[in-house]
Here is the input.
Amino acid sequence: QVQLVESGGGLVQAGGSLSLSCAASGRTIRNSDMAWYRQAPGKERVFVATISWTDQSTYYAGSVKGRFTISRDNAKNTVYLQMNSLKPEDTAIYYCNMGRYWGQGTQVTVSS
Here is the structure.
C-alpha cells in the first residue's frame, strides 16, 4: 500500500520560512515525478512545484517561483519543499503527489 505522509507545516509570520517533507512508503519514488499542490480555503487545489525523476529538473507555479524550492532524496524516499519569504496568500493545505497517489496534506498558515 502506497502512502505519502507530509510534515513540517505550521504557523509562521509573513516573511518567514517553512520546510515541508513528504515521506513515501510502499513504493520507491526513484522512478516517479514528484509534486506539491496546495488548496486554500474555499478554492480548488492548484499546482505548486514538481521535480522530475530523470534529471531532477524542476518547475514552479509563477506565484512561488524564486521563493520555493523543491528537492528530493531518493535514498530516503522523501521529497521536500523549502518555502521562503512566505506571504499570507501562501496559506493553504499543502499536498504531496506521486502520480495517482496523494498525501493527507499539511496545513501552512502565514500571518500578516
